[in-house]
Amino acid sequence: MEKSKGLEPFCAECGCAGVVLAAGRSSRMGRPKMLLPLRGQTLLGRVLGAALESRLNPVVLVVGYEAERILDSLGGVKSHRKLRIVENRDFADGMSTSLVCGLREVEKECGAVMVLLGDMPFVSAGLVDHLLKRTAESGLPLGAVVVRGRRSLPVVIRRELYDEVKELTGDAGARGLFSSHPDRVCLVEPPEDYDDTDIDTPEDFERLRRAVDKTPPS
Fold first, then answer.
1. Which CATH number is correct for 16-213, 3.90.550.10, 3.20.20.10, 2.60.40.10, 3.40.50.2300?
2. What is the per-residue pLDDT for 199?
């Protein structure tokens, strides 16, 4: 795969920040979904734990709706050396505002960011590190996990496209970048079985809870 020219390289070990999006209203859930309990953790706690265990550094948590309750749920994790917390006061204007908010926190110091959703409870540190390594090796400005033949999250965005991130609007997140640059994407198969389920409704959560209850603890 030919490397893109004019890109500032990033180190797979330390040159990529994580941006965990956890600012939305959870309108379809009817309560803050980031706080939903799952095997002794919250949904957000599982995702944040994976990000902090990975090679992402720093990890930026973007909060907005019910920010105080969400931060209270983190306990001692709030003092983790890699974690930074930013509040998006414009969260009602869509996911793009949270992505831009997180990017602005790290854009001067990091050559890439990895975007994770706080309601995807099966993200692991191994998956994060695999996507990070493969994208770094490709030299391409975008990276994404592929699940059952379709692009999914997490995704990686390199510095070359930061200005385009800042122009995103609405609730589509980084989707527009991938549509604009389909030939500049490193698509990565997960190194392990990966369920990219995200949780939006009470029915989603009930299915998730039943599935997890049937699975032996790791």
1. 3.90.550.10
2. 83
